[in-house]
Fold this sequence. Notes:
The structure holds 2 protein chains of 2 kinds.
Chain A: E1 2-6, E2 20-24, H1 28-38, H2 43-46, E3 47-48, E4 51-52, E5 56-60, E6 63-64, E7 80-85, E8 88-89
Parallel strand pairs in A: 1-7
Antiparallel strand pairs in A: 1-2, 3-4, 5-6, 5-7
Chain B: E1 2-4, H1 6-19, E2 25-31, E3 39-43, E4 53-54, H2 57-69, E5 72-81, H3 90-95, E6 102-107, E7 115-122, E8 125-129, E9 131-133
Parallel strand pairs in B: 1-9, 5-6
Antiparallel strand pairs in B: 2-3, 2-5, 6-7, 7-8
Amino acid sequence: MAVTVSVPTILRTYTGGEKSVQASGATVAEVIEDLESRHSGIKGRLVKDGSLHRFINVYVNDQDVRFEGGLVAAVHDGDNVTILPAVAGGSPHGPV
Amino acid sequence: MLTIRRDLVEAMVKHARRDHPDEACGVLAGPQGSDRPERFIPMLNSARSMTFYEFDSGDDIRLHRELESRDEERVVIYHSHTATEAYPSRRDIDIAGYPEAHYVLISTRDPDSDELRSYRIIDGEVTEEPVVVE
C-alpha cells in the first residue's frame, strides 16, 4: 500500500526538508514504521507509549484517525496521510 | 518582529474579550513566506475552558486545506489567557508545533487594559519579539 505523507515543518528535519514523502503500510502504525525506517527519529515524535502522541493529529484522506481506531486505522493504496501538530495550550494553572 | 495591521489586532482582542472567561484562539493567515498577516480567522476553542485551548482536529484540517488552496500559511497563532499574563505557559511551549509562526498571547485578566505580546517558540525556546502595529 503506497501512500503519500504530508509532513509539517516541525518534522521536516527528519525528511531532509521534504514536505511530502512516500511510505507504505496497511495501517497507520505500519506507515509510521516504514517512515521510521527511512527517516530515523520521526516515530518518536508521532507515537508515545504505544499510542499516537496526544498533540499530533494524523489524518487519512482528511479523516482524523483517532476516530478510526488510531494506530490500527486502515490505510489504502493511494491514500493521503496528513500530519498536523495540534494547536493547543493554556494558562499555567490548567489541567495537563 | 511582528508587523501587523491595527484592525487585525483589534479583531483578536475583541474575540478574546467576547470569549472571556474562556480562552479564545485563532490564526491570522498570510501569503506563504511573506511573514505578513492579512486575514483574521477565529477558531472554536473545542476545550471551551478557562485554562486550556485546542483547535478541533476537524476544523484544523479544513483550515489546513483552505490555506493550502490559497497559498497561505498560519503567520500568527493567537490565544488568550484570561487570568494570567500574556506569556506562554509551560504547556504552550511544550505543545507549540509551528516554529514558523508568531505566537500571539492576549491577556484579558484586566477588564480595562489589553495586553498583547508576540513570541517565537522553537524547540522549547521562547523568544519575545517587538510588535509593530501599522
